[in-house]
Amino acid sequence: MHKKVIFRHRWLPYALLFPQLAITIVFFIWPASQALYQSVLLEDAFGLSSKFVALENFIALFEDPHYLGSFKVTIVFSVAVAFLSMGFSLLLAVMADRVIKGSMAYKTLLIWPYAIAPAVSGVLWFFMFNPTVGINAWLLRQMGYDWNHYLDGGDALLLIIIASAWQQISYNFLFFLAGLQAIPRSLIEAAAIDGASPMKRFWTIIFPLLSPTTFFLLVVNIVYAFFGTFGVVHATTDGGPYGATSILVYKVFNDGFVGLDLGGSAAQSVILMAIVIGLTVVQFRYVERQVEY
Amino acid sequence: MAEVRLNDVQKVYPNGFKAIHGIDIDITDGEFIVLVGPSGCGKSTLLRMIAGLETVSDGEIHIGERMVNQLEPADRDIAMVFQNYALYPHMSCYDNMAYGLRNKGMPKDEIEKRVREAAEILELAQLLDRRPRQLSGGQRQRIAMGRAIVREPSVFLFDEPLSNLDAKLRVQMRVEIRKLQRNLGTTSVYVTHDQVEAMTMADRLVVMNEGVAEQIGTPIEVYERPATMFVAGFIGSPAMNFMDAKVEGEEVVVGGKLHFPMPNGTGALEAGREVSLGIRPEHLDLGGNGDVGLPIKVELVEHLGADTLVYGYLPWDTQNLVTLRMQGSQEFPAGHEITLTVSHDHLHLFDKQSGKRI
User: Fold this and answer.
1) Which CATH class is domain A62-290?
2) Residue A105 has pLDDT above 80, yes or no
3) Is A205–B72 a contact, with Cβ atoms under 8 angstroms apart?
4) Residue B115: pLDDT over 70
5) Mind listing the pLDDT tens digit for each residue in A202-213?
6) For chain B, which residues lie within 8 Å of any Cβ of chain A, measuring from their own Cβ?
């Protein structure tokens, strides 16, 4: 189906496209090309001059154990965020699917966390886990665990994982609930007559039928964990202690604006850009053309 | 194979709505029972209660020797065919049919044997590797049937299984289901709102209305001696003609003018009793030698090819159309006056208040 619109004036289509094009060029294409340009330059220590160094910034990055460490942290972080948040929201959605009384109130309440800014959610959890005054840290101490995200890299990583996953639960919950409600009731009934226990029904019928939703959410959650969690890190751990929570987006910012290594930071953003493009391709290829049952 | 007995079965929803008002049915082994009625009459609810998908509020359901009220659907030894087939879309047809057997922990070669056998019977052998969405409606229907028969249950339950098929396929599947059921000899309960399906398939019909079984009987019994006005109006197409009438001595008088003799087997009735007189459209005759003549002013004629339906009014009653069904094709101009006769063997008399047959 191809519909061709004929405009009477030559300039009209361009005029109509102009606002969108202007925004794309000014805020996306131009900065991206600047990043590409910067990534092949090296500045001197005083920021007075810069010279062309070809791919040296990239080579330096991949020889830098801190950068490779950040990569590892990011992968652990995003996988953990995606699974924690999706697992939890699937559980909530399955429960909500059965609720009859007060389901509206329940659903509405579950959506609230999504309205909270990442930085605020980070600070919220930061306080709750604060080693001196946080209630969760106190509870953990009662159970014999000495929580301290200022000193312990594992604790710090866990903190930002929890804060980021918590934010995303609402979004995942909505999609899972919609997915569950789209499964015809008679399929579940047929499975019940076929002698499948509720657990078996879930794993052999419901979960496979949710797989398009699950795959979509997996991509969305990974993208979120990669790029949407800067605020959480910045407001809580600042990438520390000793880089334990320095995820890639945070490192771009930190190296560029705190460390003032513009070339290296630009090179990092170019790598991030490549990752975004990769994820987008995955999303378009496999999610948009997902298997329809 | 088993008998199914329903003992004063009732269903009350939490909001107080009473869907089933106490139904007693004894279904003998191997019998094909059809629950028929308009939408919302509770026929599907009753079937789902037998299946165990709805709880039983009161009364008892027995399958074979067991009272099954508290049993899970899986433990009732039943198989159900759903209106939308309810095939598992992510499984091949083979897996769809094998799913229930696997859940029972049946050995693999036994599953294979049963599925192949069922596929043979239903002529599905080439379709077993496909997914349900690659099949036509009729093929999906067969897979759903196959899934039911591999389980070799005591009872088949059918919930309007043909209503999603086109008319031609419906007739074909109707015959096939009936044949299959006869060969297997499995007790079956079949829900439909289609009276043709009900009449042609049933050993016995249960005509339901508003949660009550109005009549239970063989199709011919139900057609020839409908127990209530509802049954008389629901079974038979076009619907039976009803006329308000009064008892006068040995006669039933319509509109003060038409004197009908008492139908066969009716005892003496008190004079002046208000009744409804029912005549099926196919029992009205154009100018035949019936007992009474009805003067009809033609309003509309419908040609069905083999039959012609003529609609008209009695001169004193322009509210209720009288329908005549005659063989062959014949043309009447609107406003034309004809005289219809009826034999008193074919009169049905109902109490006007209770709607019950007299």
Assistant:
1) mainly alpha
2) yes
3) no
4) yes
5) 999 999 999 888
6) 51-53, 72-74, 78-80, 82-84, 86, 88-90, 99-100, 103-104, 133, 147, 151
What letter represents residue B88's amino acid? Y
**Cβ B74–A205 below 8 Å, yes or no?**
no
Contacting residues of B for A196, CB less than 8 Å apart: 74, 99, 103
- Sheet arrangement for strand B32-36: B78-81, B155-159, B187-192, B32-36, B204-209, B212-217
Inter-helix orientation angle B137-150/B108-122, to 10°: 140
DSSP string, B13-45: -TTS-EEEEEEEEEEPTT-EEEEE-STTSSHHH
Inter-chain CB proximity A190 and B82 less than 8 Å: yes
Of A285, A151, A203, nearest to B88 by C-alpha is A203
Flag whether the pTM goes above 0.90. no
Between chains, do B82 and A189 touch, taking CB under 8 Å as contact?
Answer: yes
Tokens representing A134?
A: 């946080």
Residue A21 pLDDT > 90, yes or no? Answer: yes
Q: Determine whether the interchain pair B80/A204 forms a contact, defined as Cβ–Cβ distance below 8 Å.
A: no
**Partner residue opposite A293 with nearest CB, options B52, B90, B147:** B90
Residue B190 pLDDT class (50, 70, 90 cuts):
very high
B160 dihedral zone (left: phi>0; alpha: psi -120 to 50; beta): left
- pLDDT on residue A113: 83
Contacts of B51 in chain A (CB under 8 A): 189, 193
B191-246 confidence digits (pLDDT tens) = 999 988 999 999 999 999 999 999 999 999 999 999 999 999 999 888 999 988 88
Of residues A202, A265, A284, A248, the one with CA closest to residue A78:
A248
pLDDT, average across residues A216-231: 88
Instruction: Walk across the sheet containing B317-327 and list its strands.
Output: B285-286, B337-342, B292-303, B307-314, B317-327
Give the span between the Cα atoms of B326 and B323, in whole angstroms.
Answer: 10
What would the pLDDT profile of A228-269 be if each residue is shown by its tens digit? Answer: 888 888 888 887 788 888 888 888 888 888 887 888 888 888
Residue B99 Cα, gap to closest chain A Cα (Å) = 7
pLDDT digits (tens, 9 = 90+) for B90-108: 999 999 999 999 998 899 9
User: Looking at the predicted structure, is the pLDDT value of residue A291 above 60?
Assistant: no
For residues B177-195, average pLDDT:
91
Q: Show me where the domains of chain A are located.
A: 62-290
Tell which of B75, B81, B103 to mutate to test the A interface (max A CBs under 10 Å). Answer: B103
Percent of chain A, pLDDT > 90? Answer: 20
